[in-house]
Amino acid sequence: MPYMQESDWATALADATRHFIDLLQIDTTNPPGNERPAAQHIANVLAQHNIESVILESAPRRANLITRLKGDGSLPPLLMMGHMDVVMAEPDKWSHPPFSGHKRADGMIFGRGATDMKQTVAAALATLLLIKQNFHDNKLLPKRDVIFLALADEETGGTYGAQWMAEHHADLFSDAEFALNEGGGMATDINGVRYMTIQAGEKGTSRFWLRARGTPGHGSIPMPNAGIVRLADAVHRLGSTWLPIHMTATTRRFLQVLADTQTGESAAFFQQLLESADPDSLMAQATFDPTMQRTLNAILRNTAMPTILRSGGQLNVIPDVAEAGIDGRLLPGQSREDFEREIRAVLGPGLADLEIEWATPEPAIALESELEGPLLDAISEVMAVHAPGTHLLPNLVTGGTDAKAIAPLGIKVFGFSPHPADDLHIFERAHAHDERLHEKSFHYCVRTTYAIVERVITKDV
Ligand SMILES: [Zn+2]
Known about the structure:
The model has no long low-confidence stretch (mean pLDDT about 95). By secondary structure, the chain is α+β, with helices and mostly antiparallel strands. α1 (about 10-25) runs antiparallel to α3 (about 120-135), α1 crosses α14 and α11 crosses α14. It starts with 8 loop residues before the first helix and ends with a helix. It has 14 helices and 19 strands. It has two domains: about 5-185 and about 365-460, 3-Layer(aba) Sandwich (Aminopeptidase), CATH 3.40.630; about 205-235 and about 305-365, Alpha-Beta Plaits (2-Layer Sandwich), CATH 3.30.70. β1 (about 55-60) and β2 form a beta hairpin. Bound molecules: zinc ion. Zinc ion (ZN) binds next to loops.
């Protein structure tokens, strides 16, 4: 398919890198967000290429941008989505200032947002420009519209970004069949076998306060059943006990890929785990490296991790109340009632009087998309060429992204922003000091993103 000549890539990639660095130089730290200048910059670049876009402000300086390249309407649109905001940075802990977009002599590009996720936003922008150049400027129409949504406020939950857009402007993009988002496309190595994650689901959030009460008293006369002591017991139990395993469609596919592609004992273990009537005992006996163990446990279970402790104010006073903040995460298909039952079972009858107060009236929903269809086919075909020998690994993300606001509109959201198979630590660099991405990795992201989009908008189903 001669839409893109190999000789066109040099200019395209140089332009894309410039736009990526420009975006890194705009401080969109959230809070407060201030995405307006980033949205304006993207709008200007699009305008230079005769692409109209609209900026929608959810609050002063909180901006979302949307644009659409028309297709012939024979198939529903593809949505590319990404957030422009970033988390805070401590400049004195960086080798180069976090909003410098500094490119080192070896090609390493530094900046807050370099891996989460201005690289993906810049790759989507480059893809739009190339689709315009290769199709519309040649009087060709793709089969699908391509919609691009650059969002505010992902890092603090999306109130001014994805949620606001879904609530107020869904009519501008809800006709999309599927979306490409962050959350996958990262290479990982398991026992020497290379995988590329593709996010097919997200856990939900159900955080709560756990509270123990007792009679206050003098610190000189110990009270073994004081609230503070019983809360400590509860925190220890919750923090050191895994809740029961529940297999979801995504984790089944995840384990099946591992069973099919690992070798020896490792392959046998994953196959057993899939088939076992008692996966909890199997996992308890497993001997993985600690990181793999924690990750696997977190995607197989609801989790309740203590993150805040509050009690007491004076050394000689036994406090009447003690409370712990617990970060609760729910698997797809799990209700808050299921979750509370599991927590109560860990606490046991001796701690049955502890109060659970949910931090929000309703849990944030968990998501799971069917991993099939034209977008997945395009991803598989492109990655077979660009990442040979690498297996796509369907992944359930333990955190949350903007997908939570967009998927309920009926759009299948896949987290897939591809990075090279030898760039293994993309995810660890997100939110860290010296967040950075090599120019080569960025170029790879642009080329593969474009290839996936080109394929999906030109192919019949
Ligand atoms: Zn992100």
